[in-house]
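Researcher: Go.
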Amino acid sequence: MQEEELIRILMKTRVGLLGYIQSIVRSAELAEDIFQDVCVIAIEKRASLADRQNVAAWLYKSARFEALNRLRKRAKKELLLSDHLLDLLDAEFQKADDESASHILFDAIRHCVQLLSPSAQLLIQYRYTRGMDYAQIAAEVGRSSNSLYVTFCRIHASLAQCVEKYRREARANG
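Model: Structure:
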């Protein structure tokens, strides 16, 4: 792949990639740094990126890897999303090809989390804000790890449905 074509693709996907990275690392500055790293990696590996149609998917996977790697290295208790939610975000951000679509997705996630019951919101906070695993949460709330796993599966499914409904309504309105 020619460097100029790769740069065009990077610029076209910039807003979506930055939004996606920021949703993982929760910091605009860190997201920008990671985006720049992804750009450098892409340019270095452009010879192996011959299939233009798969470049965007490769960029999102690289961004995800770099973002999670950076969080692990920093050893901070940032908001870490489950692999399932990251996969949903991957799919949504790859569909989103402009800035407004990225904003719709952020608004949808925020809106849908607020619609969860207070107990579900607390579980989300324990898991993703505090970075607690199922065993730690189970001890905190007095439930079994297995029952929490089932509850999280239901929460994730509910969030996915809500986000999709929100996006459809946002598209219909405008």
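Model: The chain has a mean pLDDT of 79.
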